[in-house]
Amino acid sequence: MERKGLHVAVVGATGAVGQQMIQTLENRKFPVETLTLLSSERSAGKKVVFKGQEIEVQVAKPESFAGVDIALFSAGGAVSKALAPEAVKRGAIVVDNTSAFRMDENVPLVVPEVNESDLTWHNGIIANPNCSTIQMVVALEPIRQAFGLKKVIVSTYQAVSGAGSQAIEELKTQAKAILAGESFTPEILPVKSERKHYQIAFNAIPQIDKFQENGFTFEEMKMINETKKIMHMPELEVAATCVRIPVMTGHSESVYIEVEKEGISAEQIKRVLKEAPGVVLQDDPADQLYPMPADCVGKNDVFVGRIRKDLDRDNAFHLWIVSDNLLKGAAWNSVQIAESLLKLGLVNL
Amino acid sequence: MERKGLHVAVVGATGAVGQQMIQTLENRKFPVETLTLLSSERSAGKKVVFKGQEIEVQVAKPESFAGVDIALFSAGGAVSKALAPEAVKRGAIVVDNTSAFRMDENVPLVVPEVNESDLTWHNGIIANPNCSTIQMVVALEPIRQAFGLKKVIVSTYQAVSGAGSQAIEELKTQAKAILAGESFTPEILPVKSERKHYQIAFNAIPQIDKFQENGFTFEEMKMINETKKIMHMPELEVAATCVRIPVMTGHSESVYIEVEKEGISAEQIKRVLKEAPGVVLQDDPADQLYPMPADCVGKNDVFVGRIRKDLDRDNAFHLWIVSDNLLKGAAWNSVQIAESLLKLGLVNL
Are both A313 and A336 inside the same structural domain? Predict the structure, then answer.
């Protein structure tokens, strides 16, 4: 007998991404019969409205996942490592928004516009890529399909909401203090658990996540490694510099690419992007039309503009890619994976 | 008979850069005997303090330059085009901070750390490069000297003060309005004379100056063409994407370079930059040390950090370059050119 809907759990339900996940499930009319909202002890007991009904957030524990079909995790890597296998054990499919399982070769790392078919070989856990990676590969995959792809160099302009609700508050509080000529003490950014914290209001911080031995940050290495995995291109040259700027929501990326084919024009790149799934082309210099983070908030699409052919290399191009990091970069991509699981018959009503 | 000092004129004395020029002349103890402050009719009559004395700003006209030894221009391209030749006719050497003469082959384009000797063939006018270009070439020239340079790709994170005092006010006003939940109307950025204006507070605008036919902005083409001219490398591959971010003062740049020599390490690049004139190396990931615009304000140096060897190409590196766009990017480079003119005997006490 067909059910009316699925039993969905959201882990990290009170966080910046969790809230967007719940909203996105409602907006997309995802067939939810039961919604279980889970969090740490600290946030348990809060009430969240879903489709007009109040749902109380409960403490996440192994038993919480009994009967759950799909569990969307966004409560930090440690929670995912501890509880995702417990959810799988109880029959749930986990869509994990943390970096805990992304590079695990038994776990597909999925952006539906790019590699939806990787969902078919999942073993219970599906990883949602890093926000900066998702919006970039959505724009690069149609170019790769049409013209091949050899090299990517990206510099990011990342919003503070990528670091959570506390970082949004910190930006607001600091900006107010600076405009009022008052003092303040940075406490959250660039990385809460790091020893040093820096001003983000009216500043730019070239550190997102901690540093690795090779001088790149983990955020930069996520973009590099995840792009290769999602696009099935271990040989692709990718380099990233990740920078936090004083924007609440909406990541921007300045991207240089080299394609395989020679003789391609910027017009041909634009034509491909115009037809690409999940992409909105915003590129008309004569009308000052280009994507900006302030315009992308609340939208599921990836916006691309400033497309130019390089002046020196025939096969090189420059792009400017913007998207809502909480939606396509996190909540929407996770719900979209859930929609794909239904569509592909990997989960059934 | 040796004079006590020179007769210096500052054109655009009440602007963001002009004010910094006057302050820099004082801070550097530049030998000024007479300081003539000039502006448009709108700002004439204002009084500016120099070395404890009030000087009244006068309307700039051809006769204003009688007896002037060095005239520092920063009042827009149209003013420079009209009055710089008049100043030269009256015997002054002009250091022009606008783009009016930069690509004129009879005009040297000078960053003293890079090409001071180009001052010797001046014909009355010396051009001060674009702010974004200056800080980049100060960091790249010592690398070029040591290891050769083939390719540069830069993405900028530019402060609003590069667009003048009105843009600083606009950022503050907008930020206050947004934090208070009030409405506002963008009027200055990205380009005052353009048809459309966009929010800069908590946003990023990928347009600085107007667009050219080829899809690049004039700002981007300035970085490309000026870098080649200053470094005497017409064959250098340079590409730029210029972006305005909500920072008052201090431009940041994410720069990818390919050097000629193979087998160079990031340590070797750091060692070269540590000894380079005008450069301060701030690069210690273990101590979260890297340059940020909020730290560079009021300083003459160019700060470089986040130096990493590319993971794919042996001869490629990534750098993060930050400097005060009103100082090394404008006022300090202009006064530094004046100091070089004295040092080289091209102007005499």
Answer: no
Give a yes or no: residue B296 inside a domain.
Answer: yes
> Does position A2 have pLDDT exceeding 70, yes or no?
no
**Residue A271 neighbours by CB distance under 10 Å:** 13
In B, minimum Cα distance to A242 occurs at B254
pLDDT tens profile A153-201: 999 999 999 999 999 999 999 999 999 999 999 999 999 999 999 999 9
A159-185 b/e (C-beta count within 10 Å ≥ 16 → b): bbbbbbbebbebbbbbbbebbeeeeee
Of A20, A17, A115, A11, nearest to A57 by C-alpha is: A11
Question: Is A27 annotated for ligand binding?
Answer: no
B33-89 pLDDT, tens digit per residue, is: 999 999 999 999 999 999 999 999 999 999 999 999 999 999 999 999 999 999 999
- The Cα–Cα gap between B310 and A216 comes to 10
Interface of B with A in 208-247 (CB under 8 A): 211, 214-216, 224, 237-239, 241, 243, 245-247
Q: ipTM of this predicted complex?
A: 0.97
Query: Residue B14 is part of which domain span?
Result: 6-128+330-343
Say which CATH number the domain at B55 has.
Answer: 3.40.50.720
Cβ burial of A228 (10 Å; 0-12, 13-18, 19+) is: middle
pLDDT tens track for A306-342: 999 999 999 999 999 999 999 999 999 999 999 999 9
> Hey, is the C-beta of B294 within 8 angstroms of any chain A C-beta?
yes
* Annotated binding-site ranges of B for NADP(+): 14-17, 42-43, 161-162, 325
**CB neighbour class for B342 (10 Å; exposed up to 12, middle 13-18, buried from 19):** middle
